[in-house]
Amino acid sequence: MKNVLIIGAGRSATTLIKYLLDHSRQYGWLIMVADAEPSLAESKVNKHPNGLAVWLDASKPNDRKDLIRRADLVISLLPPHLHVAVAIDCLQLRKHFMTTSYLIPELQELHDTAKKSGLTFIAEIGFDPGLDHISVMPLIRKLQSRGNTIEGLRSYSGALIAPESDDNPWHYKFTWNPQNVINAGKGISQYLVDNQNKYIRYDWLFRRTRKVEVPSIGMLEMYLNRDALVYRRHYGLKKLPNILRGTLRYPGFCAAWDAIIRLGLTDDNYPIMESYQMPYKKLIEAFLEDSKGRLKDRVARYLGEDPSSPVMKKLSWLGLFGNKKIKLKHATPAAILKDLLLEKFALNPNDQDLVVLQHECDYISEGKKRTLVSSLVHKGSVKEGTAMSKAVGLPIGIIAKLVINGTFSDPGVHLPVHADLYGPVLQELAESGLEFIESEKEYSEFVL
User: Fold this and answer.
1) Which one-letter DSSP state was computed for residue 329?
2) How far apart are CA 424 and CA 184, in angstroms?
3) Structural domain boundaries, residue 338
4) Do 359 and 335 share a structural domain?
5) Each residue of 316-333: pLDDT tens digit?
6) 160 and 211: one domain?
């Protein structure tokens, strides 16, 4: 019997765990699910005969290694700062390793050792990053096989609330890790236009947005997603002159999130020493110098907004100008914001969500510029499995099956850009209702 260890039983693990358990009898697998909250792991395993829920504090090396030692394949769904430690354990204990998180340099540096040890390590195999790579590769290969010259690539993705469940002024709810939302865009985001590097600082990111039309959804807005340039090499397009990656939101979200940033609420560098039981309005007061007039009017002046603007209405809806008390002790502004949004952006039991992923590939054919578009719009529900859980969990599960059964056995550190990976994943996803639709449109000049 082969053993698969999943470390982390949070939001993104649900569909993955179910997928592997559903296939465990056929292939003779034991699926171990480890989490710091045993009850959470137990709820996901749901007494399956081929499942085992175990407690693990992943920050404790000895406990972590004891579990990894029992596995053949380890899937890390931990916070990014713990992935490298798990990967190094897997090298030492000779176990295959997979993670949804970004391929950071510390992981890439393990390539030669993993290759010599005959171990397969795969990163970026969730929704974004992950399904974006899996779906763009056949698009690139199709255009190249027809002799076309690829001139530009724009990839957009978004985890959104479905219109039927959109009941707040932000038009947003958490369907994935809230911490990733709080940290979105920190650092410098970069893209490429006509072979010129373009950078946008964090404090400007949510002001420099772009409209993106998505079939069956309509117009969304996009802000830049991290560093797009690195993917030219991974996609085999080292000389590509234009590339951009972006995150999608409903219109109006970005302007309001920019206000959150400008107020200082995403700062995670220092604790508010007397945060416990502090009214939210007192916290906002502390960020302002102006002391004349109502708090809401002062915030509006600081932001350059009308007090009745859509941005101010969104901030008011969060309760930032009211007497509600902060529940955290010695917490940073970012931690306080996350705690508030966990309540305000929570999914209801009957809610539905959407995942949207779209590629726009500019190419030259017979001297004429065209754009090939590939779009995925998939709806899920809290009751039957969110679209986000499927979009994250199914690609991991399918690739885990390929690795554990030896169908894919290329030692070293990889992204899911190999045909032996993305081909089977896309085929099985289509059978599950996650299918990309292609269309052609006239080329339009790239502008951000």
Assistant:
1) S
2) 31
3) 264-344
4) no
5) 999 999 999 999 999 999
6) yes
